[in-house]
Amino acid sequence: MNRFKLVVVLGLLSVVCPTWAQTLTAHSDGLTADFRCPAVAPKKLPAKRAAADADELMEPPALYELAGMDAGKPDEAIPQLFRTPVRHVADRPLSIAFWGDSHLAANFFGDELVRLSGLPRSKVQASFLPATMGRPGVRLPVRKSCQGGGWAYKLAFQDKAVGANYAQGLSALTSSTPNSYLWVDFRQQLQTPNLRSLDLVYAPQGTQAVIGVSVDDGAEQVVELDSAGQGVLRILPDQAMSTLKIRLIEGSLNLEGFVPHYLETKPSLLLDTFAIPGATFKGWTTASPDYLKTRLGKTQYDVVVFEYGTNEGNVRTFDGDAYRRDLRDSLTNMRKVLPDSQCILMGPADRGVLVRHSRSAKKGSATAPASAELLRFARIHQEIASIQRSAGGEFGCSFWSWQDAMGGPGSVYKWFYHSPRWMSPDLTHLSIPGYQVTAQLFADSIQFKNWVSMYTNAQ
């Protein structure tokens, strides 16, 4: 096997990477056509079991069923989150990071913040892209991605270990299957190349991994990753690049993500979203603070936002005391990693309950469900929000109630019947317009536009 010679170069990495890395030079032809993902055989789904009663279905309550609901009121008016403005650091863009679950993973919330900033798209950048672009429900600021078989996700919130090594995405894409591949098109606007270099970040595991790397559909180069180094392969194209294809040839790869180095070297806003469907705050208890700090390097976030609680509250009986203990453990670790960032805990959105309807029954003939049942999840979310508000204050975190911003417990049903619809039919997730409205409410509360203007004007 011909192995491409790798060179160790000191002082080349940006502030978000270690001080040295392997480097790989590559040729790019500039403009690159859109790639087509290889055809993949569809997965065989288990046969559906016959419904117990084909006449029944679960769906949102009808308006008449909501007439007697004793809806709650917001705990308090949405507060101004910060008494003092975010500290401006000269010669550095405003930097914000979000961690959360499916509410943020689809990135409609983040996209609306970018729009509200009023900045050109080239002036808004990500400092780190986790390797979750192939996971259902996740949408990252890349043009397209293709992921073959053989990969598995390692997720901090599911990990049983304590002190496990995770980068800021709190996830990794792993494989020991030869020919597992991942293709990513990093362009953000049409077909314009936008990267001057790219860092592939992986976890050294003490075992050798050999990968094939292709830039902009160029010839594949074989790279033997350093099994004992810092876990960074810097890819240096001879001109601006657009796409990367990697293929596992032998060994095991634990891919944490990518650090893009854009052509625009003076962004006005760094906006990172590290959100995974199903995630809970437990990932911050599991992850090693020391390893996280190493991966962050000199990255400084002015504001960090943690949007969790929906999955913790997906239970019939909620244990508030246990949740408070777990939350404090997570926040303790978070402050070891991010001691100086302005911190916001974003409470869970309001959530509704689907009810059983008969297809054949006359409309309006069913007995309305009890108010307590309709507000079952809403009350749990209200308790979670109360705990976040009090426990967060112990760690210097402000609190923003998503549920109160919607109107309080039970507001989920009004959002569902709003035109345009602001809630999806599952009564857990919002619609795209709903996420956009929420982002606008959040941005107003944190004076987002003022921050952006302050940093932009100072540059």
Structure description:
It is a single chain. The chain has 459 residues and is an alpha/beta fold. It has a single domain (17-27, 57-458), classed as Rossmann fold (3-Layer(aba) Sandwich). It has 12 helices and 21 strands. It has helices at residues 63-66, 102-105, 108-117, 282-286, 289-296, 320-337, 371-374, 376-393, 402-406, 411-417, 432-445, 448-458, and strands spanning 7-10, 20-26, 56-59, 94-100, 124-125, 129-130, 144-147, 152-155, 171-175, 181-185, 195-202, 209-215, 221-225, 232-237, 243-251, 253-262, 269-275, 303-307, 342-346, 355-358, 397-400. The strands form 4 sheets. Strands 1, 2, 6, 8, 9, 11, 14 and 16 form an 8-stranded mixed sheet that branches. It has a 6-stranded parallel sheet with strand order 5-17-4-18-19-21. The longest helix is centred in the last third of the chain and has 18 residues, at 320-337. The model is unreliable at 1-19 (pLDDT under 50).
